[in-house]
Amino acid sequence: MENRTVSAAESGAPQGDAPDDGQGSTPERRPRVPRRVLIASAAGCAVLGVVLALLPWGSGRTAAPVPAPGAQALAAVSSGVPAALPDLAVLIEERETLLRRHPKDAASWAVLGAAYVEQGRRTAQPVYYPKAEKALRTSLRVRARNAGAMDGMAALANARRDFRAARNWSEAALEVDRRRWSAYPQLIDAHTGLGDYKAAKRTLDRLLKLHSGPAVRARAAALYRDRGWREDAAVALSDAAAGAGSPAERAAYLERAGQLAWERGDLDVALRYFQEAVRLDPDQRAALAGQGRTLAALGRTTEALNAYRVAFAKQPCPEYALELGELYESLGLGQAARVQYDLLRERAARAAAGGVDEELVLGRFEADHGDVESAVRRLRAEWRRQPGIAVADALGWALHRAGEGKEALKFARVATDRAHGGGVRSALYVYHRGLIERELDMPGPARRHLQEALRINPHFSPTGVPAADAVLQELGEPSMEDVPETDKEAGKD
């Protein structure tokens, strides 16, 4: 599980500075990331350049020999990059066979555990996580100072949304081997989940000095997205997809690019990314769910429903059940929506049995479709455990739904705080803040934030968009009485 050697696919190009995204972020210097695309001076041309760089594979490349499936999966899980499900199955069978003959092979136990983590993540089947934990702990019993197994435990904790444990395991792996680059992405994920974005950025800076390559670029893109640096995130993902070492890895990066395009309302671009991801890796169910989300916004409802159904059947994430249920609800199909909500509860219960924390999605569901008081309790507890931006938004919304508007606004401000928080440009978060302000009789800020939500992504929710439009119509045009926020109030944003 050592990973200091950089493969040919992971070698980086000369580094360049990231351009300003024009989104009002702090004048902080971006980390230097290798670039493989030419960026036009105009923003629109830059986005087009990213699209052309990502889709599709070039035809002029010389095909390299394809490694055996088990070797491909081994290279992937050892480097913390996405692996194809059929290859993972081969790797797991190979390691289980080897360990029956050599039960004291600590490295093979670590590989087996990491493969189980990836299998559980790709299939949303939490039954694999206890198997992963057993294999990884066996590896640690055989050899205590074992950075590979610690890496695997960090990945397992992140998959279970236990970010404190992920941080501890990542730091333990780095104490054993400070140059173990694959521990840094797990540590970045942990810091992000705990809402510590400054620590996440410091960790990324250390990673970029240590290593380059597609996996690092993709991780940088995720942090740029969280900071609101959309153009930087898109370019980093373009680099990652261009240098990916396998179709499954490339498909994963294209899915993330599709999500970025979706978040800024570029539906046609998002759909192309999602479709290409599924073409490259038919098991890329996150991209299939992305297709459902995008097709629904395009008004292609039947196709959207089919995409969601297949995605949930193959990767039954509670998140997909919530999205599909809300789509049914927007179509007036209440009974079909209730079926999905029942499936959400069932899948969340199964996930909890595998050690997965699904309190965030359960809290979001209960706030809008179930027991509001239960949502507040769940999300307060989640905020105490791991106060990330997504939890701040969900808790603020649940408090609003429970009639606690003043406290709700405090959390809504945290979720949309560009100076001290994640800074992610989320239409949903801004929409929530706008409705909270409207209920608190703050028409000016409410109007501004609802308009901003629709500018960020005019298609962010099948139920939220009509609600935002209705409230804006009710508020009408600004009047002289709509006094802007004071400098003191604006400083809270």
Which features characterize this protein?
Serine Threonine Protein Phosphatase 5, Tetratricopeptide repeat; 25 helices; single chain; 493 residues; mainly alpha; disordered C terminus
Q: Strands, helices and their partners?
A:
Layout: E1 15-16, E2 33-34, H1 43-54, H2 69-79, H3 85-101, H4 106-123, H5 128-142, H6 147-159, H7 163-176, H8 183-193, H9 197-210, H10 214-227, H11 230-243, H12 247-263, H13 267-280, H14 285-297, H15 301-314, H16 318-330, H17 334-353, H18 359-369, H19 372-385, H20 389-401, H21 405-415, H22 427-439, H23 443-456, H24 464-475, H25 487-490
Antiparallel strand pairs: 1-2
CATH topology of the domain at 358-490: Serine Threonine Protein Phosphatase 5, Tetratricopeptide repeat
- Helix count, DSSP H or I runs of 4 or more residues: 25
**CATH superfamily of the domain at 358-490, please?**
Tetratricopeptide repeat domain
Task: Give the overall average pLDDT.
Answer: 87
- Terminal CA distance reads 44 Å
Q: Bin the strand percentage.
A: under 5%
* Rg, nearest Å: 22 Å
SS-based class? mainly alpha
Q: Low-confidence segments, ≥5 residues, pLDDT <50?
A: 4-29, 32-53, 56-63, 487-493
So what's the overall shape?
Answer: globular
Number of E-type strands: 2
CATH-scheme architecture of the domain at 358-490: Alpha Horseshoe
